[in-house]
Amino acid sequence: MFRSSLGKISGFVVFLVLCSSVAYGEYGDVVLNKRSEAEGVRPVVFPHWFHRIRFRCKVCHTELGFEMRAGANDVTMQQIINGEFCGACHNGVIAWPTENCELCHSGKPGTKSGIYGGHETLGPGKW
Amino acid sequence: MKKNNAMTGRLKIHLMFGLILVVSTSVTGADDPNTFNRLMDPPSKRNPSPMTDGIHDPNNNGTQLLQPPKEAFQQLPKGKSGNYIDWMKALQDKKINPRNDRVDTKSQPIIMDLNIVREVKGSMPDVVYPHKQHTEWLDCANCHPAIFIPQKGANQISMASILLGEKCGVCHGKVAFPVSECRRCHSKPKPTKTANKKNKSDKQAK
């Protein structure tokens, strides 16, 4: 009796702790979910911090043509496989290839497109 | 007897687990309404790992293979907000060496050393916009002409537009250091009538 109620309490505490883990992400993380979930895969999470350690902004935002606005880029899996956008690097030469679906499609189902991680400014990126 | 021991053993484990959780939540002050730094992220919430950050799916096999930011940030100079990394210092101290070209590791950015001082009405120090730091990371075309007309004073910039994600706010507050670090932009103190002490930032700004 005593034990089972304790079990319930610690279970409840676990529940509380899980509830407090709301969506916050790392500063600069971008979720791309224009098509992913509609097509049956998890949303894509792109980490800025990880990539800016390795590349200057201009590599993606000038050479590869990524617009600097979350959601402004119409990226399809076919283009990526053909070597555009993420596929310009995730080609098995500069970085691991596109076969590793789960490393990109790692978002929690239901997460909307946009920038995460406690950003402060609003505007187009937020819509 | 033996069974009983096992029972109490399990009970102890349960108790310990419960206690640890209770302690860890009360330490972060989750239930005390009258704490210090009520609206600040506690350090334990900074740089969350993909497994707990709430935007990655912990049930996805790939998620646990991703690098937790803290691991990568260990050797980088600390900052006050955002990623809690001073990215400018990390670059200048060569703690990181981000490529300037997708494949060519020798390519170097063309740096332009031109400060633009924007006078601010009121008591806030003037804004010094440094081309030097920006051209380390960015191309002219990332800003000109879409965000800024390349002519001193030709652009209307206000704090309100920055907070709306325009002008400097296209990057600051999203990927580059956030707007809360006022003095990194408002870095040129106003000349005071009483003293003409030489300011460090005076010689930067022409």
Annotation keywords:
heterodimer; A: 127 residues; mainly alpha; three-stranded antiparallel sheet; 32% helix; globular; B: 206 residues; Cytochrome C3; two-stranded antiparallel ribbon; disordered C terminus
Could you describe the 3D structure shown?
The complex is a heterodimer of chains A (127) and B (206). Chain A has one domain (24-116): Cytochrome C3 (Alpha-Beta Complex), CATH 3.90.10.10. In chain A, 32% of the residues lie in helices and 6% in strands. Chain A contains five helices and three strands; from the N terminus they run αββααααβ. Chain B is mostly helical and 206 residues long. In chain B, strands 1-2 form a two-stranded antiparallel sheet. In chain B, strand 1 (115-118) and strand 2 form a beta hairpin. The longest helix of chain B is centred in the first third of the chain and has 26 residues, at 2-27. Chain B starts with a helix and ends with a helix. Mean pLDDT of chain B is 83; it is low at 15-29 and 195-206.
Percent helix range of chain B? 25-40%
CATH architecture of chain A: Alpha-Beta Complex
Q: Total number of β-strand segments of chain A? A: 3
Q: Please state the average pLDDT score of chain A.
A: 83
Number of strands of chain B: 2
What profile does the largest beta sheet of chain A have?
A: 3 strands, antiparallel
Q: Classify the beta-strand content of chain B into a percent band.
A: under 5%
Please count the helical segments of chain B: 8
Say which CATH homologous superfamily of the domain at 106-188 in chain B is assigned. Answer: Cytochrome C3
Order of helices and strands of chain A: HEEHHHHE
Short description:
Chain A is mainly alpha-helical. Chain A has helices spanning 2-19, 48-54, 57-63, 77-81, 101-104; strands at 30-32, 44-46, 114-115.
Layout of SSEs?
The complex is a heterodimer of chains A (127) and B (206).
Chain A: H1 2-19, E1 30-32, E2 44-46, H2 48-54, H3 57-63, H4 77-81, H5 101-104, E3 114-115
Antiparallel strand pairs in A: 1-2, 1-3
Chain B: H1 2-27, H2 69-73, H3 87-92, E1 115-118, E2 127-130, H4 131-137, H5 140-143, H6 159-163, H7 182-185, H8 200-204
Antiparallel strand pairs in B: 1-2
